[in-house]
Amino acid sequence: MKKLFLAGAKFADIPAILAAKQLGYYVITSGNDANDLGHKYANEVILEDYSNKEAMLKLLETLKVNVLIPSCDDYSLLTCSYINDYLKIGNFDNFETSKIIHHKNLWREFCAKNNIISPKALSFNNPLEAIDSIKKNFARKKIIIKPIDSAAGKGVSKNFGNDTSLKDNIEFALEHSRSKKIVVEEFIEGSKHGFSTILINKKVVFYFYDNEQYDYKPFAVSGTTTSNIITQKMANDLIEEIEKIADILKLEDGIFHTQTILKTMQDGSKKLVIIEACRRAGGDLYSKFVSLSTGIDYPLLYICSIANIPLPKLEFKRKKFIARQCIISRQGGVLQDIIFNKNIKNNILDLFLWYKKGEVINSFYKAGIIFLEFSSQEEMEYKVQNLGNLIKIKTN
After folding, report:
1. Cα–chain center distance at 350
2. Rounded to a whole number, what is the distance in angstroms from the first to the last CA of the chain?
3. 43: exposed, middle or buried (Cβ count in 10 Å: 0-12, 13-18, 19+)
4. In the chain, beta strands by DSSP E
């Protein structure tokens, strides 16, 4: 029985674990938390911190593993890329290329060098140098300050180049960066969209796009819906850009996922601008959302692309009005229950909950993920916008 090693096992990795077992693999999961929800779906668990590249390499050298795949985490992807430079057990870009894509400062430099539309950006590791340069280059302009190596909005803030809070925002970003580096970039106005692709021989063979919601925190995605905003031309233009990137960087087969902003250009046209990119699946069960929206087993698709298995025939059964939403508390306290309003119950396609009654929670506690289907765009927009009233976390 062939073995597949997953560098992680959080709840978002469950679709990949199930897909790997469907393909006939003996699945080994990792990570440094024995309570991660994905472990119970695996055949075997070997605990190890997947952000520790050297420790993971040493572990994999002792295992006879046929395929290595990353979890829904940038550190996991970088570790897998590092390991693969030595052991060659999956389709991964070399480690230096992976850093270009996953470290925000290197990504901005790459985009600028290769004429890929991207926010103007500068990177720093010194607060005083950052403040001086920001005031010179971004005075009175709206900017975003980010750690170069974090995800899910951690350490990110918005500022004007001369705000009194600038120093605090810089230090906030540095605190959330393992490498103690930040990137400062111009703020781009526009709606936000995920755009996920599968690359084979540097060509896009599958793509999917969505609308993103940021209902609880300004830089952390709280949900996604299928999109009626992106036109075929916008999609084609972005695919051309992604294939250009794949060609320049000589990318291996697999996922190329992006977060984009739909920007209005000087001539009045609209274009999807890549803000972030990664080569692993999205978190919060994004893979399941793609599968429900397209009828394509997305985790199976990307495991095949990593493992050099011929892709299954792509037979789309698209559904137009699907939503994936995080169930998040707005206040702390002792969790009593989650109440689903009768007006949302008939929309539930599936849900994955992990909360425990009686546990003490903080505000912004995530209790689970829900998948919803609607009969129209209007119903979807209305109910998603009012989800806080339709699904309530009851505390005392």
Report:
1. 21
2. 50
3. middle
4. 3-7, 26-29, 44-45, 67-70, 121-124, 142-147, 157-160, 182-186, 191-200, 203-213, 223-226, 254-264, 270-278, 322-328, 333-340, 348-353, 360-361, 366-373, 391-395
| 15-48 pLDDT tens trace | 999 999 999 999 999 999 999 999 999 999 999 9
| pLDDT tens digits along 77-96 | 999 999 999 999 999 999 99
pLDDT at 161: 65
pLDDT category, 163, cuts 50, 70, 90?
Answer: low
CATH fourth-level superfamily of 189-307: ATP-grasp fold, B domain (3.30.470.20)
Domain at 322-395: CATH architecture: Alpha-Beta Complex (3.90)
345 and 352 Cβ atoms separated by less than 8 Å: no
**Domain ranges (residues) in the chain:** 3-93, 120-186, 189-307, 322-395
Q: Residue 77: which of 265, 281, 343, 359 has the closest Cα?
A: 281
Looking at domain 3-93, does it have CATH number 3.40.50.20? yes
Mean pLDDT, the chain, integer = 93
Distance, in Å, from the CA atom of 273 to the CA atom of 264, rounded to the nearest integer, reads 10
| 256-282 residue pLDDT tens | 999 999 999 989 999 999 999 999 999
Q: What is the DSSP letter of 220?
A: B
* CATH code, residues 120-186: 3.30.1490.20
pTM of the model: 0.93
Buried b (16+ CB within 10 A) or exposed e, 140-152: eeebbbbbbbbbe
Shortest CA distance to 309 belongs to which of 92, 6, 93, 90? Answer: 90
Count CB-CB contacts under 10 A for residue 88: 10
